[in-house]
Amino acid sequence: IFTRLGYPRTFTVDNGRQFVSEEFDYFCKERGITLNKTTPYWPQQNGEVKRQNRSLLKRLRISNGLNRDWKKDLLEYMAMYYTTPHSTTGRTPTELCLGRAIRGKIPSLQDIETQPPLTTEYRDRDKMLKEKGKDKEDKKRGAKESDIIIGDVVLMKNVLPGNKLTTTFGRNRFIVTGKAGASVTVMDIKSGKIYCRNSAHLKKVYEPEDAQSGKEADEGQQDMRDQEITQYKDDMLCEQDDDQETEDNIEATDRMITQTRNKRTVREPEKFKDFVRS
Known about the structure:
Blueprint lengths: L1 H4 L4 E4 L8 H9 L3 E4 L9 H19 L4 H14 L9 H6 L22 H21 L11 E5 L11 E12 L2 E6 L5 E5 L3 E3 L3 H53 L18
Parallel strand pairs: 1-2
Antiparallel strand pairs: 3-4, 3-7, 4-5, 5-6
Helix pairs in contact: 3-4
InterPro entries: Integrase_cat-core, Retrovirus_Pol_polyprotein, RNaseH-like_sf, RNaseH_sf
GO molecular function: nucleic acid binding
């Protein structure tokens, strides 16, 4: 690949053993390749590769289920992928990587483009749709800016599986030594080991001073709530007094109406005139 396409500017790799060796670091440094390592236990940082791997595994499962040659099916899939315009950029992968579109099964007016694209509209479209997708996912997950800064004492989330009694965060305390975006570097206070984690896997520990200030703030808020409750009770009592006075006035009015109303004369029915009643 390097002989045909040359050396890339950057490598984005996970923390697999084959990518963290000194030999690989020397290989990249000697050829001027910047090595970008993703945050451990945070595959979302390399989501594009994970999405492509999912498509490859799906193709391999189909080939295995049909008892076909997986190598041949994989080559056919890659040929279709290279010559199919992407839904986000509107261009084929070969057009973006090589500056020209290779011929495939999809008919086109120009089978081969000899000149690389001069416009950057596909870049703008790609950036716009990625930002739109990011905003949608952030809203869906309730993502917010982390308040962790350098020098804070934090707890680290237990990302390895444990039993049912294992707590979400470990008991060891770490101090934040560096932060770049959502990637945070922490140091174990006891052992001095350095770890790199996403800010979502860290929980800030509040010291007694912070707790005292937070307690004072809570007490102030409690006093305000007590005042509001007292005022509300006073208002309710006033309303009850008004309601009681209103009810008393209504009852007095009803009694006056009852007293001033003329009594109705009760007449005996005509059918009882011929009878003697005891």
